[in-house]
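Annotated sample (chain length 195).
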Amino acid sequence: MKNLRYLFPLLFLFACGGSGGSDTAVTTTAAPVSVGDYETVAIPGVDGLVRAIKKNGVGRTIEEGTLLNGQKHGAWIIHDDVKQQIVEIVNYHEGKKCGVSVKPNFAREKEKSYYANDVLHGPSETYGNNAKPSMSSTYVNGQLEGKVVKYYDDGTTLKEESNYKNGKMHGSSKFYDQEGNVKLEYTYKNGKMVK
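Output written by the structure step:
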């Protein structure tokens, strides 16, 4: 778990398009400054970009990332308030969630989703504790769209297949037993069962 602390510099490096090398050495470090709820340190060479850390009342880090002109920008790491485990790594562009978000939840299912302009947009996947897929879906402008597939614990045997349109069940919805046989089948139209 402690090795995950080294993940932030790597995410920052990729989020900022850095290559790890530099033509000039930076020998000065700016003093921390408070901005809102964040303690910040300027990042040399990029105007308005600062490393930001938010702590809880007892000094534990709960958020860390970069602010560009006062807005979240690039990769941010969200920590559990008590155990200090990483609960989410999310990317921002001009203060809005944009790009991949990963929830490496150590106690429950893990999630990987994509955002655009602060709403879910694109593929979303959930994995069980055994790292096998448990659900896959797609979001368009924050609403489920297309096929949602759920799996049994083995990650390959279908448990459910349902179709969505504009965030509502629309089309066939099938439920399978662990041998792969269809046990129930319904048809929906705009969120209402019609068959």
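Annotation: The CA atoms of residues 53 and 64 lie 4 Å apart.
Annotation: The chain has a mean pLDDT of 82.
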